[in-house]
Amino acid sequence: MMPASHSSNAPQMSAIMRITRSRIALRLALREGQANGNSTSPPSIASLAGWDLLKNNASAYLLLQGLQKIWANHPLRIVGQNAIQVADLLVKPIAEHSPVKLVTGAFVVGGLLFLARPWRLMTKSALIAGILAR
Q1: What is the pLDDT of residues 82-95, one digit of tens each?
Q2: Exposed, middle or buried by CB within 10 Å (0-12, 13-18, 19+), for 61?
Q3: Largest pairwise CA distance in the chain
């Protein structure tokens, strides 16, 4: 006996129609989540799986606590947060409408960075001074 979805009375949907219907349902679900304040935020360090293991190791726990305090006041943290917001504004529309262009652009930018190697323009002393300035 055939399942109910394959009965002769049920209209057959093409693959394109099923994908379109699925995309619409996903967009509606995402909008409802944003409207309810359920935005997706990155997990905190405390919610990561290995955190419990590190809590049991006193030296690792103290080291991570120190790093968290340093990072909370570090100037690059603010730069990173602003870069994430700007990238989100610029990249999200491209990702929604043409993800292939986004992947192609990332590939091209990565290739150009690989070929240009901008990190080699910085002298070792300047690099060390920048790291140890804190």
Answers
A1: 999 998 898 888 88
A2: middle
A3: 76
